[in-house]
Predict the 3D structure of the following.
Amino acid sequence: MVQILSGAASPPGTDRPEQRRQLVTAVPGPRSQELMARRTAAVPAGVGTALPVFVERAGGGVLVDVDGNTLIDLGSGIAVTSVGNAAPAVVSAVAEQAARFTHTCFMITPYAGYVEVCERLNRLTPGGFEKRSMLVNSGAEAVENAVKIARAATGRPAVVVFEHGYHGRTLLTMTLTAKYRPYKAGFGPYAPEVYRAPMAYPFRWPSGPQRCADEAYERFADLVSTQVGADQVACVVVEPIQGEGGFVVPAPGFLRRVAEFCAAHGILLVADEVQTGFGRTGDWFASTFEGIEPDLVTTAKGIAGGMPLGGVTGRAEVMDAVHVSGLGGTFGGNPVSCAAAVAAIDMIESEDLVGRARRIAELALPRLHGLAERHPQVADVRGRGAMLAVELVGADGRTPAPALLADVLRRCAAEGVIVLGAGTYGNVLRLLPPLVIGEDLLLDGLDVLDAAFAAALAGPVHRSTGP
Ligand code: PLZ
């Protein structure tokens, strides 16, 4: 049964679950299994489930499942609940706004919350220039609109993206996404005028990480100049740290050179900060670490404490290039989501959650490096702030080890810790804890991770992974 919060006697959020891992059944428990059977009969398998544990409530850094187990959340619903799940300030803002009005459609009769969120986006995103923002419902919709705006502003058709990139599941953003399975298989034909350059992926760059930035830049510039035509390119779309592709931090200097190339050729640079945004990486936006000021920035995920919202923010002259009523959508910038966003952004500021992201790195990075020292299968440790990952390989130090990842994730879940996978080769373990997570909770989660690796690698299976 879903618990219903009732009236002023029990203000929303005050029944936050105890911030402690506690298992009372196997994971998944019997009630989750029952619900899973209903789900299988009612929902197509095309909508995946990473962990068949049904959630009843959540708060801070834990999820409580329908069997009464309390699990540590090191995934934040894929980098969404940065301010904590059901953050009391967000819950109150949502309840208050929902009681006043739930919808008008901003394109019909506007409201202040939408404008407020746009003002904040204009202020917080990188770049000292005058900006405008528009709001949408999701990350994919943000990227989709950024491309429409870039095309309208430049009058050019082409879009350049990168290997290992992820930008969404709609027809255009699926085309921008690199990975074939599961995202693209069977869903073609894809959108036209999308070109893909190599990413400066230090760990997997053929001639080694030292040469990665220069060589990847040369490949990019060559592709654009000789195959696409620089004067045909509306925009380059790039994640300043690649998310689904495996938390690939571009080799230092690569994105700055890409940005310079774009500026020199009238190409707009779109930073897809859907996953990296809102403090996640230890700055408000990850573009800052790369020393780039994108012309357009896309946001979603962590913007609104779990409510669906996305944004496109950009140079005023670029955003204003679109004709009146060329942009929009029925639900875009829903007032309840906007109220949640204002509360979440206030909280990121007042509780210095950007600093908390850096603190999470201080606590977690040494533990991940420790894993790498103990286990040669943990071959690369990377990321920034509370966006950290390890890449798992076989005995040759290179061949991806997706079976090892699956084993470790399964062992963590069985012990009540939710950790996510990622990567083009399905061999990257990523940590995306809520920025508010308690230090004890985080350390307990990391202990479980250590033990999961030790157990997985104690058996004969993964010791012999690789050719
Ligand atoms: N851009 C950089 O990370 C969403 C995808 C989950 P939506 N990443 C999680 C899945 O398997 O569908 C994402 C992203 C970046 C765009 C998106 C798309 O955001 O809100 O999922 O549409």
In short: The pocket of PLZ is lined by residues 78, 138-140, 143, 166-169, 239, 243-244, 272, 274-275, 300 (CB under 6 Å). Residues 1-13 have pLDDT under 50 and may be disordered. The first strand starts at residue 55 and ends at 59.
